[in-house]
Structures are given as structure tokens and as C-alpha cells.
Amino acid sequence: MCLAVPGKVVEIEGEGELRMGRVDFSGVTRQACLAYVPEVRIGDYVLVHVGFALSRIDEQAAIETLRALAEIDALEEAAADDRAASGGS
Amino acid sequence: MRHVDEYRDAQAIASVVRRIRDTATRRWALMEVCGGQTHSILKFGMDQLLPDTVELIHGPGCPVCVTPLELVDRAIAIASRPDVSFCSFGDMLRVPGSGDDLLKVKARGGDVRIVYSPLDALRVARQHPERKVVFFAVGFETTAPANAMAVHRARAEGLSNFSVLVAHVLVPPALEALLGCEDARIDGLLAPGHVCTVTGYRDYEAVAARHRIPIVVTGFEPLDLLHGILAAVTQLERGEALVENQYARVVVRDGNAAARAMVEDVFVVSDRTWRGLGAIPRSGLALAPRYARFDAEQVFDVAKVAVREPEECRAGLVLQGRLRPTDCPAFGTRCNPEHPLGATMVSTEGACAAYFHYRRAPLAAAESPLTGAG
Question: Which of A80-84, B220-224, B305-309 has the lowest mean pLDDT?
Fold first, then answer.
């Protein structure tokens, strides 16, 4: 029930408690309440749960997480190469 | 899909799994709290990719599963009334009550409707002033802001035919109850990313300090979960017990202030009984006094509904992480999604449902959907 899906905000109307938007989930658009993400603008990605955007997805934080994962990948590749070069398994 | 596909890269997954294997020098038991994470783990076969040194224990994070039987029976009693339009998330309809379930009420002609959002239930109330519209407000902290907004709007609009049957529960008190057991064997926690989207993770810092265990706020995609597991294992190997945030693209330390403010306006913290865990003080939400007229339990006289727990269902042990679904004698035979004995077999976040859907028969590691045939 805590399922939440990222989507791109394509329309915004209303304000305050009645701030609503349309969110594009890879081609399927649905209405979502944007009252809890007042900072969100058209083009931003939001996380939507039961018709409510709960968070604006932070692009910079996403890049940093992916960079950390890429570093693990690079280190593991290097370690695998070392093992292969030394004849280990 | 943006912000999804990046976290399903097979090569990166293999690297993080190798790093976890290289980091863990002894066996560690980690609990993923959220049932959505449990489903992701089984769906992508991640439990089979992990080394034997990491054991995943499935937590109680399925709000449908922990909703006590008496509340399901009250829902059925209300939904059976001819003057009521009963709206619910789809998950609740198949959950067995003492006798029927909500789907059977609908089959008998009851006006039971599946809604995507509590705002849909509010719309039904606006469109049908002659009907008493009830929304089954089930959920953890993630869902509370949505349900709070529905009640808040009903009050602001003066809707007198709308009420909610509240079954809201809170994660940290349940974690305290699980970790406080003398025989608890949880070394680290993956905290539920979407709950923390709303609440932030300050409360988890207190839990980590009190029980001296690492807690990693974790997302739901395969790389999110493996990244969270790696962070927890790294802390355990170093002897640390900190709260880390793996899901920083979505979660900030203080959560969503606007959402929390609405929840605090509409609800108050209350004692709650959890199916499988029992009564836990201050572990749920109830409507604040000024919203009392929207409380379906008061609108309809259902407090005296009698309850009989099914004897054969062992969901309580599953929800505490003490029994693997496949170790239940009824699993897949007398209990299956078509004929469930308990909620854990029907909810989209129930651990029994996850094992049934994704791993009915043991799957060879090489057949994991992430690694393909190689």
C-alpha cells in the first residue's frame, strides 16, 4: 500500500489545498494532488502515492546515488581484473 | 521509466552483490520493514543473489495485513448496510473477516467500490448526497496525508454524508516492539523509504541509538535495496549503529512538512492493536476530536462486532519475521490467493502473497530475472 511511483508533472492548476496537477507516468497521465509539494514546477519529477505527490525527486541527489553505485561497479571491475591477472578466481 | 530503470542495471547489481559478499565476514540478519520492499526482493530474485552471510527477515510493513480482524468485521458490517457506499483500496476487499470478506458483500449486492485515492471517495460523496459514503482509511504514515486531506476537505466543504473507518498504524512503535523482544535476532534494519518520505527519519535515529543497530532508509528498486543492504552490512562490520539515507533523491531528514502538518491537524496518536503483534501503545492514529463526526465507528454502531480469529492462519508469526511463509503447513495448499486464510496471502504487500506469486517452487539462482540465463 506504500507503493509510490515517480512521474513528470505536465500541468498545474489551483493553489494551496486545491493545488492539482497532471502527472505523466511514461505515457499514462493521471491527476494528482500537489498540495504537499508547493515547490514543484512543471517539468519536475514527483513521487505519487494514492493520488498525492509526496516528494519532489531531487535530481542532484539521484545523480550522487548513481555515482556512488558506479564507483562500486568500477572498483569491483578492477578487483575482478586483478584476480584474473593473478590467476585467482 | 525515469528514476526507475537506472536502478535495475544488471551489471551494477552484480557489482553491488559482489561488494556485499566481500564486505560481510559473518552472518547478519537484516529486516526490510516494508512489504513493498519484500515484494521487490522476491520479484527480482534478490534474496537468491545475496551471499549466505546476509539473511533478509521480512517485516510487518503491510498495513492491510496488520489491520485487526475486528476492524475488518466492522468494515463488513458497515458495507452491508443498504444506505452505505463503502469505498476502499482494492487490497482490503479479499481480506477474510470472521465470516465474509468485502468482495462477498459486493457480490451480494452491497455498494462496495474500489478507489485509487481517498479523493475518489470524496467525489462519490459529493455526487451522491443521498448515500452515506464511507472510506476505509487503512495505511501507514505514507497514506496518512492523503486520508487526512480527504477528511479535511470534507469538513471544509460541509459534507455531512462522508466518514472514514480509520485503521492507521505507525512504523517506529512496531519496530520498538519487535526489537524489544528478548529473542529478537535483527542485526540491522532497512527503513521504509516511502514512510520516511512523509515523516523523515529523526524517529529512527532514536531507535538506532536505543537498540544499537544500523538503520538505512532505503528505496524500492533492486539497486536501492542492494545499496541499502551494503550500507547496513558495512556499518555492522565496523560496529556502527547509525541512520543512513540511501533514498536521498526522495527522502529528507525532516520529511514533508506540509504533509505532516495536515496529518497533525486531522489525526491524534492513539493506541492500536496490530494483527499478529497485539496491542502497542501509541502505535496508530485516530481522528482528532474536532473531526469526530467523520468517524465511521461513531456514525455507525459497530463497536460490539464479535471476533473469531482463524486458528490455522499463522500470519502473526510471519509478520514478526519468525516464520517464513513457505514454512507454514497451510502455505500454497489450504491457503492460497484464491482461498486465503489470512491477509498476508492477499495483500500486494503481504509476505505470503510475495512467496506465492514469485517463488511458488524454489528457483535456481541462475534463473533469477536479474541475471538471466547466465
Answer: B305-309
Residue of chain A nearest B15, judged by CA positions: A73
Is A49 in Cβ contact with B349 (below 8 Å)? no
Domain that holds residue A33: 1-57
Q: Look at strands A45-49 and A5-13 and give their pairing.
A: antiparallel
The pLDDT tens digits of the residues spanning B256-279 come to: 999 999 999 999 999 999 988 889
Give the number of A-B residue pairs with CB atoms closer than 8 Å.
141
- The answer to whether residue B248 neighbours chain A at the CB level (below 8 Å) is yes
CATH number at residue B280: 3.40.50.11740
| CA-derived radius of gyration, chain B | 21
pLDDT at residue number A79: 85
In this structure, are A51 and A71 located in the same domain? no
CATH number of the domain that residue A42 is part of? 2.30.30.140
The strand order across the sheet containing B132-139 reads: B111-114, B84-88, B132-139, B162-169, B278-287, B267-274
Tell me which residue in B12, B35, B198 faces A73 most closely, judged by beta carbons.
B12
Q: Domain total for chain A?
A: 2
**Count of positions (residues) in chain B:** 374
